[in-house]
Write a structure and sequence with these properties.
Number of strands: 13
Number of helices: 1
Strand content: over 45%
Largest sheet: 13 strands, antiparallel
Order of helices and strands: EEEEEEEEEEEEHE
């Protein structure tokens, strides 16, 4: 197996319930093969279309090698109405593995203006769908995922953000489904010559085969960089004050299995 070290240097980023996703590349087995061909074109400055075909080998449990053929279409469409920008990003994929065929769909839309930004995401994967990078999640293989979010800028130095996400995953061995739902809110005050303040709240619900979890977290951040004018008399080049306050509550219910 591959091992490594991930170092996070900035204070306050990682908390007890933080989740970190690491993406990495590796060399596939020398007995396996991978081929791909793609064509991309842009009919205009506001449209991009990419078509991709790939073929790769997948090692089976019995160490045999099986071939997977995949087809993918990706596009990005942009529109503008007065001071509102819209972007639509659809993607469709299809794979064939022996007699099994599977589909995957990804849709994202973005709406932005000077005062507000909105986004929505939907993605869905068939159980038979296969890709070079598996659609794995911490609770199993992703079946479908939905997310929406909004960021509002009432003034230049104030951000108000709300996000919601729900993920359905499937355990490959027994077809049981797990669900994770998350709601986040954050207020950020950041103005020149003033301390930066943020207050965030999070509610995460896990519904799994073995247990259910409901966790609420509240976090506050304070950061202030002293200006060079204030530090002249102290013979200091820089000075920063940083503080974090955090509290969380979690209710866990274990689903006990009775054996007769």
């Amino acid at each position: 197996y591959t091992s490594g070290t991930l170092l996070i240097l900035k204070e306050g980023i990682i908390a007890e319930d933080s989740e970190t996703e690491v993406y990495y590349e590796y060399y596939r087995d020398t007995d396996e093969q991978f081929h791909t061909a793609a064509i991309g074109f842009g009919p205009s400055d506001n449209a991009i279309i990419d078509v991709n075909y790939s073929s790769f080998d997948e090692k089976q449990i019995d160490s045999s090698i099986a071939r997977v053929d995949a087809f993918n279409v990706f596009s990005e469409l942009k529109f503008r109405f007065e001071n509102i920008d819209l972007k639509f990003t659809p993607e469709y994929s299809r794979s064939k593995f022996g007699d099994q065929e599977g589909n995957a769909l990804f849709l994202r839309s973005d709406i932005s203006s000077d005062k507000i930004r909105l986004f929505s995401i939907f993605e869905s994967y068939d159980k038979q769908y296969k890709s070079l990078v598996p659609n794995k999640f911490k609770l199993g293989n992703i079946k479908n995922r939905m997310a929406i979010g909004a960021t509002y800028y009432p003034v230049d130095f104030l951000d108000i953000e709300v996000k919601w996400k729900k993920t359905h995953s499937q355990i490959q061995s027994n077809d049981k489904e797990n669900t994770e739902e998350e709601l986040n809110g954050k207020i950020l005050f950041s103005k020149n010559m003033y301390p930066a303040l943020s207050l965030s709240a999070r509610n995460r619900t896990l519904k799994g085969e073995d247990y259910n979890s409901d966790k609420k977290t509240v976090k506050g951040d304070f950061e202030y960089d002293f200006s060079s004018e204030l530090l002249k008399n102290l013979s200091l080049k820089s000075m920063r004050v940083y503080a974090v306050w955090r509290r969380s509550w979690e209710d866990i219910n274990v689903n006990e299995k009775l054996s007769l």
